[in-house]
Amino acid sequence: MTHWLDDSVLQSIASENNLSETAFFVSTTEGYHLRWFTPTVEVDLCGHATLAAAWVLFNKLNYSENVIHFSTRSGILSVSKEADEYCMDFPAKKALPIDEPEGLLAALGLAGNVEGFWLSDDIIVLVKDKSCLENLNPDFNKLAVFKTRGVIVTAPGGGEFDFVSRWFGPQVGVNEDPVTGSAHTFLAPFWAERSGKNELLAQQGGSRKGTLRCCVRNDGRVVLYGSARLMIEGTFIL
């Protein structure tokens, strides 16, 4: 786009797409202004839609610089291309311990094996064993009453991955997201503190899964690495 459409139009497009997030960008004098919408609301940060926007700029719109700078509701985000991967530079966020939110475990269908609860943009539920994630069958109506962006359940990876997770966000119109880059801006520091590792490999998702390579830097930033490919393209008729 060369200029912003009305917010109601952007939201309607995202609703029709019915994906976790739809990204929109316009050119600025210093790069691009980038925004993200779920099917129901505009959000502050989205990783995979940022990756998709960068892929389009590098591969379809012939962006010639090494780094793309996006102006967003979360500040300036930079994306660079390194071989077959894209490197996304995001601000790190902290997670603070909280008491067990009443009714949360029942809404998730979790019983036992829970080690604690934390709060960042989402409620974090730490469980002891990744097998707990495989059988999760949340009641999304009950989850929607918790006044956060979403709820993420995470566990040690116990093998190929340093940690695994599943993210649920009926509060923002996304029952489950297969990969949530924004959640890893606090999950990566959360697990770096526990593992003593600043570079971590993560897997997220239920029936659909994705992999993220995370680097926690000392300057308060988290770098996420991922790959992308074109699946579909066409014309949206307003």
TrEMBL record:
Family membership: Belongs to the PhzF family.
Keyword annotations: Isomerase
GO terms for cellular component: cytoplasm
GO molecular function, one term: isomerase activity
Protein name: PhzC-PhzF family isomerase
Active site: E21
Coiled coil: none
Listed InterPro entries: Phenazine_PhzF-like (IPR003719)
Family matches, as Pfam families: PhzC-PhzF (PF02567)
Alphabetical list of NCBIfam families matching this protein: PhzF_family
